[in-house]
Amino acid sequence: MIIRRHIEDRVRARLAASPAVALLGPRQVGKTTLARQIAADWPGGAVYLDLERPADRRKLEDADAYLREQRGKLVVIDEIHRAPNIFEVLRGVIDERRAAGERHGHFLLLGSAALELMRQTSETLAGRIAYLDIAPLTLAEAQGAGIGENALWLRGGFPESLLAADDAASLDWRRDFIRSYLERDVPMFAPRLPAETVGRLWSMLAHQQGGLLNQARLAGSLGVSAPAVGRYIDLLADLKLVRRLPPWSGNAGKRLVKAPKVFIRDSGIVHALLELERRDEVVGHPVAGPSYEGMAIENLIEAAGERRTACFYRTQDGAEIDLVLVRGGTPEIAVEIKRSSAPAPDKGFAIACDDLGIRQRFVAYPGTERFPLRHGAQAVGLGELAEILSR
C-alpha cells in the first residue's frame, strides 16, 4: 500500500519555483517513494540516482558532463550526502540554465542529516535551493488510508512499521531500524561519537520522553561530560529522530523554565526502545501519557506548517501549556494534551493562557467529539485539531 503524503503538493510547488529542492527526513520515512511518484509524471521526464548504488555513483564521476546531458529532466539524487563535491557542479549547471531562462525544477535532493546537508549547500547553492522536511506519517495521512489513531500511536509513523502484518513484525522492523542507525548512520555522520553511548542515551530519552533536558544528570548516568551529551542530542536532532521543544522566551513577567523539553519524534521508536510490543503494554507503562503527548505535538506542529513556530510554556510556579503556536512573535494558540476520554484542562493551563493573552485554547484528546470546557477552552479530537490548524 502506498499512502499519499500531504507534503507532495508542497514539494511540487517548491520545484515549480526553485531550481533545486532538498527533502530532508530520517531513513525509511518515505522520501524515496515520494520522489519516485513525483518523477513518474514529471514533464520532460526524470532521472533517479541512488548514491548508495555503486553504478549510480559511477555516473557522477564526471558529474558536470552527466548532469548537463539531463537538461529538461528532473534529476533526483538520493543519499546526496555521499557526494559532497557535487554541489559546486550543481551551482554551475543551475546558473547556466538560469541564464537560458530555465529557472526551476532541475534537482530534487534527498538527505537524512539536515545540518550536514544544509552546511554543504549553504554557500554553494545559496539562493538556489529550498528546504522541506518530511516527517513520519501523520494521523491525517494514516486515517486517509484507513489506519486508526491507536495503531499509529503504537507503531509510529514509519510506513514499514505501520503497515507491518502484525505488532510483532512491526516491533522487529523498529528494532532493526534502531540498530541500523547505531551501526551505520552514527559512524557515518559523527565518526568520533561512540555509537554504543548514543544508543544508551537514546534509550534514556525514551524513558524520560517529554522531560526537561538536564544534560548534567544524563552525563552522570552515561559517564561522559555534559557537553558530550549535548553533541549526542545534536546528532539525534540533526537526524530528525529527536525534537528539542524550546520554552517560551518572551517577556511574560514570570519566572520561566528555561530548559527545552526533549521528545523522541516517533512514538513507535519510543515503544521499541522500551521493548513495548502491544497497546496494552504501552497503556500500562508510565510512558503512555508522554508518548501520546509526543505523537500529538508532532502531528500538530506538522499541521501548523511553516507559518507558525512551536514552543511550550512553564513557570516555576507550575503554570504550563504543553504546546504554544506562535506567529510573528505573538502566541496565538495554546494546546493542552490529555490521553483521556473525558479531558479537562488544569488550572495552571488557564493561568498560563492568561499570562500570554491567548484566547484560542484547545485540549487535544483521543476522541471525536468537540465540546466546551472551563477556562474558555474546547476539547477537540487530535485529528480534528490538526485539520483546524492545517487550514
Q: Give the strand order, joined by hyphens, for the main sheet.
A: 9-10-11-12-14-13
Spans of at least 5 consecutive residues whose pLDDT stays below 50 are none
Described by strand count, sense and barrel closure, the largest sheet is: 6 strands, mixed
Tally of DSSP helical segments: 18
Q: According to CATH, what is the topology of the largest domain?
A: Arc Repressor Mutant, subunit A
Helix percentage range: 40-55%
What is the CATH first-level class name of the largest domain?
Answer: Mainly Alpha
Distance between the termini: 27 Å
Describe the structure in your own words.
With 391 residues, the chain is an alpha/beta fold. The protein has 2 domains: 7-133, P-loop containing nucleotide triphosphate hydrolases (Rossmann fold, 3-Layer(aba) Sandwich), CATH 3.40.50; 139-390, Winged helix-like DNA-binding domain superfamily/Winged helix DNA-binding domain (Arc Repressor Mutant, subunit A), CATH 1.10.10. It is 46% helix and 18% strand. The chain contains 18 helices and 14 strands. The strands form 3 sheets. It has a 6-stranded mixed sheet with strand order 9-10-11-12-14-13. A hairpin with a 5-residue loop joins β9 (309-314) and β10. α4 (63-69) runs parallel beside α5 (86-99). The longest helix has 23 residues, at 167-189. It is globular. The model has no long low-confidence stretch (mean pLDDT 93).
